[in-house]
Amino acid sequence: MDPECSRIQDDPDIKVMMAGSTLRKVKSRSWKKQRHFRLLEDGLTIWYKSRWAGKGHSTFSVTEVEAVREGHQSEVLLSLAEEFPADLCFTLVFHGRQGNLDLVADSLEEAQAWIQGVRKLIHRAQTMDEKERLDQWVWDWFQKADKNKDGKMNFKEVKKLLKMMNVDMNEEHALHLFTMADKSESGSLEIEQFVHFYKMLTQRDEVWKVFQDYSGDGERLMLEELQNFLQTEQYEGEQSVQHAQELIDCYEPSETAMKQGAMSLDGFQVYLCSQEGSIFKPEYQKLHQDMSQPLSHYFISSSHNTYLLEDQLRGQSSLEAYIQALKRGCRCVEVDCWDGSDGEPVVYHGHTLTSKILFKDVISTVKEYAFKTSDFPVILSLENHCGVEQQTVMAQHLKQVLGDMLQTTLLDGQVPQQLPSPQELKGKILLKAKKIGGLEECLDETLTDEGSDEEEMSNDDPESLSTEDPQAGNHTDKKSKLSRELSDLVVYCKSVHFHGFEHARSHAKFYEMSSFSESKAKKLAKEAGTEFVQYNTQQLSRIYPSGLRTDSSNYNPQEMWNVGCQIVALNFQTAGLEMDLNDGLFRQNGCCGYVLKPDFMRDGNTQFSPEKPEERQGYKPLRLSIQVISGQQLPKVNQKEGSIVDPLVRVEIYGVPPDQAKDETSHINNNGFNPVWNETLNFVIHTPELALVRFVVEDYDKASRNDFIGQFTLPLTCIQAGYRHIHLLSKDGTAIPPSSLFVNINISELT
């Protein structure tokens, strides 16, 4: 029995979970079915099946669960509040984009046991260190492969297990390792012996080689040898002396080695696989940037049609979509408002079959989740299609629900010359919408309606889905009323039509901002890149996907960041390259949703052109050299028995146009367990400050498209050079431990 499990098994809540409970799984008002749930012996897997069905069952791991919500804390359970009392209801929320699981227990005691039990298990999973995590992983595999549950594993079971683990190993070698681990010569391995077998299996020759290069006796690294390694290979300067001792204290498992002030191969491997040995500079993961500059000086994590969980035509509108985006660090969410039939404004994708949710519920949800991940301001981008009456209702909800959180007045009562900073607006929500007049004066009640932001392009944007005839002038002539109450809530983000850079230079106020469709923004970036960069030092720009992307696909945000656009709105619900780039850029600076633009994009007189990066002052290109050494425990793509991956690694650079590049290793046949490439990929980067580096692992297929295995994306400026591990993420952006790549990175000035 896993020692970690036995302690937790004594917990009364865990005992209830292991004994199993019948809980009602609820999907909608009409779909509510009883399922039998229990926690398996590994203390990690929750298993459930219908009480009647034959063999079919489902499982998920506690590590996939992010949180447990108590009571009526989901749309489904709220809609059934009359039928099921709150103290019997709870919701399991998963990482990534996986849907919630809504459950109802039969008794209060049972509900509490599951709520508290799952929370304890999540806490335990989060607080395990690297070694415990690996032990848990090995233990899980042992459980999976011990088919007859006798706590032992014979060679036949071991062979099956190797296939499950993505290892293609010739039988002779496997039998040799098996015999070495089978100390008692009983023909089967118990858990301790299996751990030994697994250690031999995962013996990392490539790590051993690096260790040998610096170890005098080949057994251990003395303090001085470790310092030498840190200085020479890991590019650490003076601090390597102190750091070497800290690493031994932190990662060395052997007491003997610690007493000698040395590090064993085991300790060395644990260090290389830890956060400190990872590719991301630990000091850049924390909040470290200057947050006191005007909002226009930051890239801001932004979502498009935030209320949608799926596509743009039939998808579900959902409050969960706002929760997921805000938890991902998104700081600008979109709210599409339409007149509701009973006087209450609703949110949905107009003129489509997407379902509707209440505006006031959206605002309550935003209030609750706005500042859980980040303290910095959230911008509510209002797409207003309501008549005056319901606009006034919207204004009342905004004031009542958000109260002081809503920034409705100038910070110090003065009209400044530039936007306030994220620091000054901490904990505040800003409304982006149309406004009657400016901050300086108030004009006449009537305002020529320029159409809502995303429609204002329909006159000149071939991609817009507007079916109306623009020649008929149908949305520019009619006078439409703006509710004074709603208008008064807009301070620093007044939506205006864009009339060109020339007009903006002479007339634009800092608090006025425009929205551009992706095609319009691309055209401006290509034709007037430098002007766009200059414009974005003062004004905020919001970019949104083309109206043709009804499948919720995304455009490449990098092209917009290259010209300094701050609010580059993406469909957060759609996984893929574009969201990987967004997650990659905003992974730095404490994941707070704001990243300071490089200095040459904050100076109003900048001459920077993304097309001609070599012309800027202070131009310093870099050479990036990546030796892709090996991969570890890559997940299986195809769950079919006997299929094993043929992995290759591709490195992709996203940045200014001359920096766009990709290169890949060859593929390794039949080895997802410990493939070794030892290939070097070289790149020249002209604008390092804007470059993102994406590592992708794929399963090579000569007949069809390669299958995606995992990826990791980060800004070039956040890369730690030296021998590093890259901990891969799934398509959804969630961790898939212990899958990783081992690389050696060198970054030097191009001479």
UniProtKB/TrEMBL annotation:
GO cellular component, one term: nucleus
Keyword presence, Lipid metabolism: yes
Cofactor, how bound (note): Binds 3 Ca(2+) ions per subunit. Two of the Ca(2+) ions are bound to the C2 domain.
PH domain residues: 15-123
GO BP annotations, alphabetical order: intracellular signal transduction; lipid catabolic process
Key words, A-Z: Calcium, Cytoplasm, Endoplasmic reticulum, Glycoprotein, Hydrolase, Lipid degradation, Lipid metabolism, Membrane, Metal-binding, Nucleus, Repeat, Transducer
Glycosylation, residue list: S184
Family annotation (SMART domains): C2, EFh, PH, PLCXc, PLCYc
InterPro entries membership: C2_dom (IPR000008), C2_domain_sf (IPR035892), EF-hand-dom_pair (IPR011992), EF_Hand_1_Ca_BS (IPR018247), EF_hand_dom (IPR002048), PH-like_dom_sf (IPR011993), PH_domain (IPR001849), PI-PLC_fam (IPR001192)
Cofactor needs: Ca(2+)
Domain C2: 602-730
Residues that hold substrate according to the record: K432, K434, S515, R542
Domain of life of the native organism: Eukaryota
Protein's recorded name: Phosphoinositide phospholipase C
Source organism of this protein record: Parambassis ranga (Indian glassy fish)
